[in-house]
Sequence to fold (573 residues):
Amino acid sequence: MLGMSTDAGSTEHGQPTHFIAQKIEADLAGGNFRGGVVTRFPPEPNGFLHVGHAKSICLNFGLAARYGGRCNLRFDDTNPAKEEQRYIDGIKEDVRWLGFEWAEERYASDYFDTLYAWAQKLIEAGKAYVDDQSGEQIRASRGDLVTPGTESPFRGRSADESLELFAQMKAGKFGDGEKVLRAKIDMVSPNLNLRDPVLYRILHAHHPRTGDAWCVYPMYDWAHGQSDWIEGVTHSLCSLEFEDHRPLYDWFLDTLIDLGVESPSGVTYRPRQTEFNRLNLTHTVMSKRKLRALVERGVVDGWDDPRMPTLSGMRRRGYTAAGLRAFVDGVGLSKRNQTIELARMESSIREDLNEVTPRRMAVLEPIRLVIENWPEGHVEMRESVNNPEDASAGTREVPMTGELFISADDFMEEPPKKFFRLGPGREVRLRFGYFVTCTGYEKDDAGRVTVVRCTYDPATSGGNAPDGRKVKGTITWVSAEHAVDAEVRLYDTLFAEESPEKAELDAALNAESLKVVSGAKLEPACAEAVAGEPIQFERVGYFVRDADAAGGAAVFNRSVGLRDAWAKAQKKG
Ligand code: ATP
Ligand code: MG
Fold:
């Protein structure tokens, strides 16, 4: 396990900050779990991970690290109809990218034999039976919160008959949905999950790992707790929607123990389930089903589209793992579901990017700045600070010439008083360059300014005027001769709607979620930018190079802008 800096549920003074950390400390203090804390992160490989999963990952891996334990990566691969190897590979890549390494890579399918044998034990003990009813009939007879369920006509079937039928189910004698194995618990339980839940269904589907060996597959509830027990998990952490499943989790394990099944990993305890609130974010959807729909319908450019809340999308967007971990830890845990503002996540990302990104100069909408008194053909290497937040990042040399690109919005023909950039007769500082004074400008037929003329003051090389005169603005620039051409992709939220989970997806989409700017001009160092390593374009925002190339031009994705409205609002509040 890497020594990650997630808070993992404790303050720097070692006090547990949330109820799960408190529970673990109480358990350890009470002498439980002497072998150390064992957790697991249990994704179903039916899609790529999203930022909600990051919360579960940071929690499970973080707590194991903090309490000297271990965390397994367990694929909950019990539904072959929806699961694929590429999702397994993607999930592993995402967990590692977030900064965690699992103790063991496990699969629920590793336990199919054991689960089958335990199911037979339940049948022998009269605690499970094969039901011939259709899914429809089972649902209809389950009742609801106000209506008790009714018992299946097959509930009284003998153990021997059920055993035989269960064997035939496994042997492929029946078609999908013809029979199921159900636990015999209580059809009038106030908890619907205890009304004879289904343990196995028939599914003639090819499994990515077990191939065609099985055609009966365990349901989540039957697989999960038992897998936890097999792995010696101490704390089985899951999101709140499983709270109502906990009595079933306990029933299965307690019943197996009552029936004399020995602890498969030789531990003296059995796992306990604890629930915590899911992470939800505004302006996005988090369910894999909905994310898959966006991909399949081509609304986005794949699971790793930079607008997706997937970890692969965020990585491609230039989000850092450290920024995400800080966000997830900062949000904390509770027993109540809440929706976090997307801007809060961006704020965490921005904070991290501010510390780690090298600065570069870039002009998204270029116009020319011609310095009339610049010596013909002269190229001057200007020493430029890489990161004012980090002295160890050093400096780089940026070539300056007599013809530069500046941003169209750094010039106004008739600037208002508060505009501190260039205008006729006005003087500004060129970042890491000289003071320049505007002497004129040219427009094209459409009336757009295309060239601004100026003179520079060679005495201001150090960034200030020896005579003490001040300029109010500093603008960024790129030498025309040395500029790197780029396509810049400006991303905004995928959904305009704050709560798209509740809305009709198409209507909630943000039509402006991607703006492509072609013809951006970047300083030469950007040619060496590596995909996946974010940088800051000074005064513009945080960007990361994309592996894509647009007709030979480099492509950069905007990660986040520079303005932090969220942090500002927090300070005011
Ligand atoms: P989805 O509904 O998006 O498919 P899921 O819960 O079915 O999500 P799993 O792969 O089954 O996804 O989840 C793996 C683990 O991640 C589970 O323990 C689950 O509780 C947790 N998890 C999933 N989504 C979130 C979330 N938004 N916040 C916190 N934990 C989550
Ligand atoms: Mg699920």
About this structure: The mean pLDDT is 94. The pocket of adenosine-5'-triphosphate (ligand 1) is lined by residues 42-44, 52-53, 55-56, 238-239, 278-279, 286-288 (CB under 6 Å). The longest helix spans residues 51-66. DSSP finds 14 helices and 27 strands in the chain.
